[in-house]
Structures are given as C-alpha cells and as structure tokens.
Amino acid sequence: MGDRSTDRGGRRSHAALPSGFETRKDAEKRCCILIKRLERRTDDPRSMELASCLRACTAHSRCMLEACPKCLRRFRGNLYREARRIVPKGAEIVTVSMIPEAARVELDALQTVDIPTRVKRYRKSLSRALPPEAMFVGGIDISMNAWHNRDDHWNLHLYGYVILPKGSGVGKRSSCGASTGCPDRDRGG
Ligand SMILES: [Zn+2]
Questions:
Q1: Are 131 and 59 within one domain?
Q2: One-letter-per-residue 3-state SS of 80-122
Q3: How far, in Å, from the CA of 88 to the mean position of ligand 1?
Q4: Which residues have a beta carbon within 5 Å of ligand 1, which is an ion?
Q5: In the listed set 64, 84, 104, which residue is the last one of a domain according to the structure?
Q6: Of 48, 86, 96, 115, whose CB neighbour count within 10 A is largest?
Q7: Which domain holds residue 48?
Q8: 65 Cα: distance to centroid of ligand 1 (angstroms)
Q9: Model confidence over 5-34: pLDDT tens digits?
Q10: Where is the stretch described as Disordered (predicted)?
Q11: Is residue 28 part of a domain?
C-alpha cells in the first residue's frame, strides 16, 4: 500500500509513494530523536541552532535542511514522483556515483566554482559516454572531504541515474557494481 503526502499548501498529493517508503510518522519520529540528541549538546551552539531549526520545521514552513528527516523525506518523495513522470515503463536504471576529473576544490575557492559551466561539461561527457537512447538524471553534491582529519577540501560529486529502455540488459552488462532498479509504475497510483 502506498503512502500519500501533502504539498506545501497541505493539499493531498495524488502520486502514491512505493510500498515500504518511509512514512511521515517515521520521519517525524526520527526528527524528534535527532532534536533530543542535539539538545543534549548544550555546549555546542551549532547543535542548538540545528535543533532549533528542526523544531521550527512545519508543513507550512519547511527548513529545507539536509539534516532534517522530514524535509529529506519530502525531497525523496518528490524525486520519486518526478522519476515516475519521466521514466518509461519497464525502463532499466543504473545508479551512478562519480567523482569527475578536477572535482577537488580548495577550501577558500568554492566561490570560484562555476556550476553552470561544470554542468554543461558533465552533460557533454555523459552524452559522449552513454548510448543515444540513454537518459541521465542527477545532480552535483558538494561535500567537504578530509583524509585522516587532514587535507580538508571540497569535492564535487556527481550522483544520478542512467535510464535505458526496457530490454537494454544493462544489469547484465554492468561490471562495475552498479545497482539496478525501477520505480514501480503499477503500484498504488
Ligand atoms: Zn525540515
């Protein structure tokens, strides 16, 4: 049985989420646990600030923080619904996680990164690497990396899905440990 969600205005969304998808109650419970843990760290102003943001996150005013279980669930649900809209029935999907060339950015140079240019470059590389019938949906995640708590730097990480028509046999062809899957278009909505 699918789970239904509400949009920003509190209206019911018609697109059902897949069976087993985290429920709103689950996310609220996780959020409460996280807030309690953060509020124990009274000596850390950042923990207190985050706890305050999470407490203030409501259906009418979302915090949109990555650390917020409620907002994260919404993001995942929206991603799933959008994928259902564009992914052909029976499509074969490979999850992709790549660190592109020149992904490293020094700590004080993040503001110099030209994201639109990078997106264009990655698009070009992917269109050359993938078969013409493939579709790529994804984005860039920027994270701070370190090695043994040293050498702090930013890293641009490309995450996404390569979507191929039914019968491409991509799962059989894959030899790099990629996982395959497909949103279930026949279930619940
Ligand atoms: Zn939130």
A1: no
A2: HHHHHHHCCCCCEEEEEEECCCCCEECHHHHHHCCHHHHHHHH
A3: 31
A4: 57, 62-63, 68, 70-71
A5: 84
A6: 96
A7: 24-84
A8: 6
A9: 444 444 445 568 888 999 999 999 999 999
A10: 169-189
A11: yes
> Residue 19: inside a domain, yes or no?
no
Query: How far does residue 42's CA lie from ligand 1's centre (Å)?
Result: 21
Indicate whether 73 belongs to any domain: yes
156 and 97 part of one domain: yes
User: Separation of 62 CA from ligand 1 center, angstroms?
Assistant: 5
Report the C-alpha gap between 115 and 87 in whole angstroms.
26
- pLDDT tens column, 102-157: 889 999 999 999 999 989 998 998 999 898 999 998 888 888 888 888 889 999 99
- Cα separation, 73 vs 102, whole angstroms: 32
- Cα 55 to averaged position of ligand 1 atoms, centre (Å): 8
What confidence tens digit (pLDDT) does each residue in 100-116 have?
878 899 999 999 999 99
- In the chain, how many domains are there? 2
- C-alpha 2 to ligand 1 mean position (Å): 22
Alpha-carbon distance of 59 to 76, in angstroms, equals: 16
Judgement on whether residues 103 and 173 belong to the same structural domain of the protein: yes
